[in-house]
Amino acid sequence: MQGALSLARRGLGRVWPNPAVGCVIVKDGAVVGRGSTQPGGRPHAETEALKRAGAKARGATVYATLEPCSHHGQTPPCADALAAAKVARVVAAIEDPDPRVKGNGFAALKRAGIAVETGLCAEEARAVNQGFFTRILHKRPMATLKLATSLDGRIATRLGESKWITSEQARARAHLLRATHDAVMIGIGTALKDDPELTCRLPGMEAFKPVRVVSDSDAKLPLASKLVRSARAHPVWIIARQGADDARVAALKAAGVDVLRVLAGPDNRPDPAEALQALGAEGLTRVLVEGGGRLAASLLKAGLIDRLVWFRAPIVLGGDGVPALEGLDVSKLADAFGFTRRSASALGPDLMESYVRAR
């Protein structure tokens, strides 16, 4: 199952709207087939593993990180494929919460006389597909907030100098984070200030192209920006409020940018919950939020940040530096936004910490 989980993780950022699944087929103590969900979400992991196993799948044990699907979509049900291959046993880490599958895949396997076991490495499997589960259960993608700051939470000096607070090692890890998410999201302030590309610039990972998303109330993203100029080769989506200027929206669409219009909140900016639900409706399961401070604060206040990855450089910039987050309106400690630390590791001179939202 650990091997299947490793295969599943390879699909993160590349298989949406489907879950990232891994499958390993074992017979007589030897692995006879391996498979993972392919880019775009199909073929599915079980189909790939069965193709590699061939006739050796008969009487074998199948280890899958998620319940095999049982419905007819763009591919036939994996449960039927396993039954046709006459495997003897399926060990699945966790049930699929998708109503089209939920328990039906296991039932189909049992009707075919296949032994079914569940629960092995369930928590690890749930962590791999938290994004897919969040979209199915809450109609939005999982949101990870990435921060790169000084020890005192600053992202720039008082005069705005920010390149580079963290080390080359930390920046490389941030690019790897982009590769494991379906989309990278920033606010229009960051887009105007930095004119970023938001690509994954790691050797050998050029095929990883997360959607670039800009929360842009009034569709102000310049047509000459790097994002717009590359939109036809590498997707760019704008989240604009319903009242955004039609001419600006039309110009962006003509340049290859997709524009999602959502309801505005009291501040006349896209409502955070509406924005993430719009992304979920498009099939996104994992979104990496990279800034700026206003966007990050709005998502935190709305309870929409599920994970936090914080890179800290061993420097102090002081209270007149630019903070990573805008005000959160926290008056009492009891109202603070809580997270549970999952890991901490050194990256050159910096520290990388990962957190999950406290439930």
Order of strands, main sheet, comes to 11-10-9-8-12-6-13-16-15
SS summary, helix count: 12
Q: What is the residue-averaged pLDDT?
A: 94
- Total E-strand runs: 16
Gross morphology: globular
Helical percentage:
25-40%
Q: For the report, how would you describe the main beta sheet?
A: 9 strands, mixed
**Poorly predicted parts:** none
* Topology as a string of helices (H) and strands (E): HEEHEHEHEHHEEHEHEHEHEHEHEEEE
Rg over C-alpha atoms, rounded to the nearest angstrom = 22 Å
Task: Give an overview in words.
This protein is an alpha/beta fold and 359 residues long. Helix content is 28%, strand content 25%. It is built from 12 helices and 16 strands. It has helices spanning 2-9, 45-53, 78-84, 104-111, 122-128, 130-138, 168-179, 188-194, 226-229, 246-254, 272-281, 293-301, and strands spanning 22-27, 30-36, 61-64, 89-92, 115-118, 142-149, 154-156, 183-187, 211-215, 236-241, 258-262, 286-291, 307-312, 322-323, 339-347, 350-357. It has a 9-stranded mixed β-sheet with strand order 11-10-9-8-12-6-13-16-15, with helices on both faces. A 5-stranded mixed β-sheet has the order 2-1-3-4-5. Strand 1 and strand 2 form a beta hairpin. The longest helix has 12 residues, at 168-179. The protein is globular. The protein starts with a helix and ends with a strand. The model has no long low-confidence stretch (mean pLDDT 94).
